Automatic annotation (TrEMBL), chain A:
Residues making up the signal peptide according to the UniProt record: 1-24
Organism per entry: Azospirillum endophyticum
Keywords assigned: Signal
Record has Signal as a keyword: yes
Matches recorded under InterPro entries: Host-pathogen_enzymatic-act (IPR051200), N2O_reductase_N (IPR011045), PQQ_b_propeller (IPR022456), WD40/YVTN_repeat-like_dom_sf (IPR015943), YVTN_b-propeller_repeat (IPR011964)
Protein name stated in the entry: PQQ-dependent catabolism-associated beta-propeller protein
Keyword field contains Signal: yes
Source organism superkingdom: Bacteria
Length: 324, 371
């Protein structure tokens, strides 16, 4: 009863809070607990559809042409390929055991998948639908980032606590950088010069010089009234102009905004509980976040710097992508 | 090459009352072996390597022989899978003066207080940490009236003592105390069920309570209680709802990976003893990776420093308390088949870290280490 009431209040509040003109984008969220992809209309901010996929969907990413969504379904040891127009799984890709996160090469031809249980990165040829290589990395591979030119792949290993730099032509490790405990997400800056790596247990973001394989800055976070242990850095996104970076802080229930020149934290946004991942709207006027414990999606207005809405999306929302 | 010793004595295999649990003969050791593999995997990227020197003495074997053998091999980090007295005997030997021992077994509170030693770090939680973790959860549930049922082993009395202290700290009230006086004997007897069914109501009669807290560390009778008690009340403590450092039911915080790696290696579930040994060996690996050093003094200094942090699949960083060498860590509240909660509970506040609401905090510690 209480749940119904709060839902209807949100629905009532929706149109009043959203002053922006129409958004055409579609937001996809993987619900880890529900085994579903929630499809949210960026205009009305209403759920349009929920699509059943394999068990424990986490990492999701769009195909290069934007017509398909790749979904890591860890408990089924595969990647489901979802046709967006029909809302149906059209085929699967062989990912190796327990895929959690992956990254698509800039040309859209290869998927690099982290296999948590096997200390391996699997390379998949998307068109051929087969694995074409494995790269041995540290214990519990997790985050995956790729350089804008597609030549360097960065994988993080959660128990080894490293960012492994991998040559994508030779499939060999060319550098290893030690970062704080339980590294999660790795993200290249658009100029390819830096890699930002978040550490969940360490609660920091290491900024790595991509050429020198050296940590040049460690960004720390401090939120008044939140205990240090609850600050767990995970998702990272940066605006295309390279000026604003956003970091999800997990059980601190905050998104930190970091100035990419000074590496100073400019502000914190209070979002839902245990925020793991985040994605921009195509015009970068909004930031969407997945909150795994409060089971919702927060919408941040980046022009007014305000959290404007939360949308219940399903059980344990994890990954998020936005299709223009 | 970083050498890590593993010191244990042969013991009679532990035979759990439940047939669902295997009889394990390699508890602890398999945890150390897994962490060694994890260390070497990471070490491969840093040009560091580790070797485990396993030293298992006969049941009546002299501890000094084991420590000397390790010292002769040049081992200075030693994971001790030993009860309290044997651990102290090892730590007091001249060879151990230049060693760092990791207590991966003994939960005795005196080891963190009156009998603490500068050359011991504890990766096993203390009884007080376990009892405090359970008490916080029971307080959160508002199950404040406890009946305490203790076994006859010396460890059971010490566990009961920790429970009494936890009751005082977190608002529990012990309304009744009883000792287990029945003989349980072998787990496999044809008429066992009939006898137990009539014994348990007798043993648990008395003042009414919210929860029956059982102190039975060896698992001699505790698993018989649930479903047979005089009052229809839950069982908690060493059996039933259990406060523990590790349990197979935990797959939170990436625990799935540790559980599956362990099962692949050992062919059985990871126990708290395996977990404590894993923590010890991983701590050394973490110190070596962070300092990029292999020397004993560098690693030991880092392990004792406030910079040291270890990820232990329990949602936050683990580190060693400066005042008694105890590893601070969340404690799982585990049911027999599901994870129920994890302590410290929300709302039990501490000026430094809520983890220090479990066990002996600096002001109350009787350990006076001259570090």
């Amino acid at each position: 009863m209480r749940f119904l009431l709060s839902c209807s209040l949100l629905l009532l509040a929706g149109p009043v809070l959203i002053a922006e003109p129409a958004f055409a984008e579609t937001i996809f969220v993987s619900n880890e607990k529900d085994n579903q992809i929630a499809v949210v209309d960026g205009d009305s901010l209403q759920i349009k559809n929920k699509i059943k996929v394999g068990r424990r969907p986490r990492g999701i990413t769009l195909s290069a042409d934007g017509t398909q969504l790749y979904v890591c379904v860890g408990d089924d040891n595969r990647i489901d390929v979802l046709d967006i127009a029909s809302g149906k799984i059209v085929h699967t890709l062989p990912s190796g055991p327990d895929p959690e996160l992956f990254v698509l090469s800039p040309d859209g031809k290869k998927l690099y998948v982290a296999n948590e249980n096997d200390n391996m990165v699997t390379v998949i040829d998307v068109a051929e639908r087969k694995a074409i290589g494995n790269i041995q990395v540290g214990v519990e591979p997790e985050g995956m980032g790729i350089s804008p030119d597609g030549r360097i792949l960065v994988n993080t290993s959660e128990t080894t606590n490293m960012a492994h730099f991998i040559d994508t032509e030779k499939h060999t490790v060319v550098g290893n950088v030690l970062v704080d405990s339980r590294p999660r997400v790795a993200r290249f800056t658009d100029d390819g010069k830096q890699v930002w790596v978040s550490s969940e247990i360490g609660g920091t973001v290491s900024v790595i010089d991509a050429a020198a394989h050296k940590v040049i800055k460690k960004i720390r976070f401090e939120v008044t009234g939140v205990r240090r242990e609850a600050i767990q850095a995970v998702g990272i996104q940066m605006t295309r102009d390279g000026k604003r970076a956003f970091v999800a802080l997990g059980p601190a229930n905050r998104i930190a905004e970091v100035d990419t020149d000074s590496f100073e934290v400019k502000r914190y946004f209070l979002v839902g509980q245990r925020v793991w991942n985040l994605a921009f709207s195509p015009d970068e006027k909004r930031l969407y976040t997945t909150n795994g414990i409060s089971n919702d999606l927060s919408v941040i207005d980046l022009e007014r710097n305000k959290v404007i809405k939360s949308i219940p999306v399903g059980g344990a929302p994890w990954g998020i992508v936005v299709k223009p | 090459m970083i050498l890590i010793g593993y010191l244990a004595r042969q013991e009679d295999p532990r035979t759990p009352l439940s047939f669902l649990e295997p009889v394990a003969t390699d508890e602890g050791l398999q945890g150390a072996r897994l962490a060694l593999a994890d260390n070497n995997m990471t070490g491969a990227f840093l040009k560091q390597s580790y070797r485990l020197v396993e030293q298992t003495l006969p049941q009546d074997g002299d501890i000094a022989t084991g420590v000397k053998a390790l010292a002769d091999e040049g081992v200075r980090f030693v994971v001790a899978d030993l009860p309290a007295d044997a651990l102290l005997a090892a730590a007091g030997l001249p060879e151990a003066k230049s060693m760092l021992l990791f207590n991966a077994r003994a939960t005795d509170d005196t080891l963190r207080n009156e009998r603490c030693r500068t050359n011991i770090l504890h990766t096993a939680p203390s009884r007080r940490m376990l009892a405090d973790a359970l008490a916080q959860y029971l307080a959160w549930k508002k199950w404040t009236r406890w009946s305490l049922l203790s076994g006859r082993d010396p460890g059971d009395a010490l566990y009961a003592e920790a429970v009494r202290r936890a009751a005082k700290r977190f608002g529990g009230r012990i309304v009744d105390e009883k000792s287990w006086t029945f003989d349980t004997g072998n787990r496999r007897t044809d008429t066992g069920v009939t006898t137990i069914q009539s014994d348990i109501p007798l043993a648990t009669q008395g003042a009414d309570y919210d929860v029956l807290v059982v102190a039975d560390e060896a698992g001699d009778f505790g698993d018989y209680l649930d479903g047979r008690t005089w009052y229809p009340r839950p069982v908690a403590g060493t059996q039933g709802l259990t406060a523990t450092a590790w349990s197979r039911v935990n797959e939170q915080w990436g625990g799935t990976q540790l559980q599956s790696r362990f099962e692949k290696l050992a062919g059985r579930w990871m126990t708290p003893r395996d977990y404590a040994a894993w923590l010890a060996v991983r701590s050394i690996g973490e110190a070596a990776a962070r300092t990029n050093a292999a020397g004993f003094d560098d690693l030991s200094a880092y392990l004792h420093s406030p910079d040291f942090e270890l990820a232990g699949f329990k949602g936050e960083a683990l580190s060693f308390r400066a005042w008694d060498g105890q590893m601070r860590q969340p404690i799982l509240i585990a049911g027999p088949r599901m994870l129920v909660s994890v302590s410290p509970q929300e709302g039990f506040l501490h000026p430094v870290t809520p983890l220090d609401t479990l066990g002996d905090d600096a002001p109350e510690s009787k350990c006076r280490l001259n570090r």
